[in-house]
Amino acid sequence: MPPVLRLGLGLLRAPALELGFLLRSCLCWSRGEAPLGDEAKHGLFDAAPAQALAARLGRGFELGPLTARSTRTILRSNLARLDGLLRLADGLQLPAGADGTVRAADFGSGDFHYATALQRWLAHHGGGRRQVVLRGFELDGHGLYRDGHSRADHARAHARLAGDGVSFAVADCTALRLPPQDVVSLFFPFLSVYACLAWGTPLSRLRPRRLLQRAVASLRPGGWLVVVDQTAAEFAKLERLLGELPVRRQRTAPFASDLAPEPERTTGQVASIWVRC
Ligand SMILES: C[S@@+](CC[C@H](N)C(=O)[O-])C[C@H]1O[C@@H](n2cnc3c(N)ncnc32)[C@H](O)[C@@H]1O
Questions:
Q1: What is the pLDDT of residues 187-225, one digit of tens each?
Q2: Which 3 state secondary structure label does DSSP give 200?
Q3: Which fold has domain 3-276?
Q4: Which of 14, 138, 153, 175 has its CA 20 to 30 A from that of 206?
C-alpha cells in the first residue's frame, strides 16, 4: 500500500484512538500481575553462530530466570536487545553514580518485556556487577491484552522477573520529573504521525520534541541517552531534534540482530548513544 494511503487510513482511525485511550485511562483496568510464559526453549536457533551467541549471553548475563519464565519470542527479543546494546557500547564505560549504582529510566516501555535485557546490560556491561535501579514508564499502560490482563500487568511481571531494583509505572514521560539519571533509554520512540497511528497511540500524545527534552533533562551531566530507531530516516529526525538539546553524539551502530524473533524486521534499525553536556 502506498505510504500516503496508509497514512490517510491511519488518520481516519485517529478519533477512535483518542476515545479508546481516554476510556482505558479512566477505567485503569487491572487483573494483577500477569502470569509469565514457560515455553520450552530447545531448538531456539537453527544457525550455529546464533546458538553459540545466545548460549554465551545466557551464561554471562544471568538469563536463567528469564529462560525459565518466558515465551520463545520474549526470550529472543531480550537476547537481541542485549546483543545490540553490547555492540553499541562496546569499549565504552557505562556511567554510574559515585556509589557504583546505575540509575536508569526507560521512556515508553510498552509492556516492558525487555526489562531483563536492559537490567543485565546496565549491571554487567564491560564486566563486573553493578547495582541497578531501573524504572520503566509507559503512557498507554491500561490497554487490554488477549489474556484479560493490561499492558501494565504484563510490564510489572517483566519488571519483577528482571530482579531487585526494577519497577514499572504508567506515566506520561513528557511530564516526568526524575532525580538525575545515569542512563535514559528510548526504544523506538514515536517521532512521526505514521508510527504513532500504527501503534494505536492517540495523535494528541505525539510530542517527540517534548519527550526528548524531558529525557535529556532527566540525565546528569555525563549521563547517557540511549535511543533505538526503526529506520535511518527516523534516526535522521532524531538527530535533528537532539541538535537543539545539550547532548553530543557518542556513537551509532546498527541494531539488527539474528537473535531477534523476526531478524528481517530489525534490518535498518539504528541505535545511538548521546552524552549529556
Ligand atoms: C513503538 S512503542 C515501543 C515500546 C517499547 N519501548 C518496545 O521497544 O517494545 C513506543 C511506546 O512509547 C509510548 N509512549 C509514547 N509517548 C509516550 C509518553 N509521552 N510517555 C510515555 N510513553 C509514551 C507508546 O505508548 C508506546 O508504547
A1: 999 999 989 988 989 999 999 999 999 999 999 999 999
A2: coil
A3: Rossmann fold (3.40.50)
A4: 153
